[in-house]
Specification:
single chain, 342 residues, alpha/beta, seven-stranded mixed β-sheet, five-stranded antiparallel β-sheet, globular
Length: 342
């Protein structure tokens, strides 16, 4: 195998290869079936998730002192979350719904939903990005035999090799957020995600920006990275040929620091504050706990008991340890005129 090509095509960094595989002509995310055809997100698991987002939206509207509020869904898939939220918002709350997605607008989508490829500027309300940042393409670095970080290059068939040394802004990002200490250690260079999140959150005039993803923080980075693929509901080797999703967990602490609105992760809620919490905790705050209904209800209202039991099962899936409950929510308040968080 020579230095320029393998038997299946040219070598590229993982960022360029992923961009082409996911969003190029016939890319994985532009297919008609959308993400729901290949993996189950919290949105698809239960309408309880959209109901929780609707309650969060209502809280933001109250804090803004308005009965008309924006909901911007970044990485909107085929509009499933927005459709669910519009069905669940309380009476009297007017919602300006924006879907941000590279794929074409689905047929039959609620006409109240605006569809576009970029985040609208100047919105006041809630920006919600569920499993978006993990699909913002990033390069992969690996420490060579001397411990120096080098870019990992990949061929269309998934074969890898070490490329040139990591330099410039990428090297600075690694040194700050994911230092590689031993030969063979790997990292996903999250700088493009930081920049994407800063641009998205910066489009809000006032309100709350939320990113939900599998994530890690600097004190607990996985030593060999998290790059993987998904196809038809199963985890597979990441091959950048358009046949599968290519994803990796997100350094959400670095994303949070890219938006200059507060003192940093772990602060208490308030104007300009930042929080990193598990999905279990975030949904618990929004009334999704997974507790089984009391048995007395089975005697007094059997049908109600069955409905409550089904809802408890769905809530348990959304909050399960080792599953959807292990997602991390980044909640980042964007101060603005008239925004008074509780």
């Amino acid at each position: 195998m020579n230095d320029e090509t393998c038997q299946s095509g040219p070598w590229r960094g993982w960022r360029a290869a992923t961009e082409a595989a996911l969003y190029g002509p016939d890319g994985f995310y532009l297919r008609p079936e959308g993400p729901a055809g290949h993996f189950r997100t919290s949105v698809h698991a239960s309408p309880l998730f959209a109901g929780a987002v609707a309650r969060l939206l209502a809280q933001v509207a109250e804090e803004l002192g308005t009965d008309e509020v924006a909901l911007v869904d970044v990485g909107a898939g085929r509009g499933e979350l927005l459709t669910g939220v519009l069905a669940a918002v309380p009476a009297g709350l007017r919602v300006r719904a924006y879907a941000v997605e590279r794929a074409a607008r689905p047929e039959g989508l609620d006409p109240r939903i605006s569809w576009g490829a970029s985040v609208p500027s100047g919105a006041r309300g809630l920006l919600f990005a569920n499993e978006w940042l993990d699909n913002v393409p990033v390069d992969v670095a690996e420490a060579d035999e001397s411990g120096a970080p080098r870019y990992v290059e990949v061929a269309p068939d998934g074969t890898e090799r070490l490329g040139p040394p990591v330099a410039g802004a990428d090297a600075e990002w690694l040194a700050r957020w994911w230092p590689l200490r031993e030969p063979g250690e790997r990292a996903e260079i999250g700088r493009p995600r930081d920049e994407a999140w800063a641009r998205a959150a910066g489009c809000l005039a006032a309100g709350l920006a939320v990113a939900v993803d599998y994530a890690h923080v600097r004190e607990a980075r996985p030593p060999f990275g998290t790059l993987t693929g998904f196809r038809a509901g199963r985890e597979v080797e990441p091959v950048p040929d358009g046949s599968c999703d290519i994803t990796s967990h997100v350094a959400l602490d670095a994303c949070a620091a890219a938006v200059a609105t507060g003192p940093g992760p772990g602060s208490s809620p308030g104007p300009g504050s930042v929080e990193l919490v598990s999905q279990r905790e975030a949904l618990r705050r929004l009334g999704v706990g997974g507790e089984r209904p009391a048995l007395d209800l089975a005697r007094s209202d059997p049908a109600g008991y069955v409905r409550a039991l089904a809802a408890a099962g769905e809530a348990a899936e959304l909050t399960a340890r080792g599953g959807l409950g292990d997602f991390t929510w980044l909640l980042q308040r964007v101060p603005g005129e008239g925004y008074c968080p509780a």
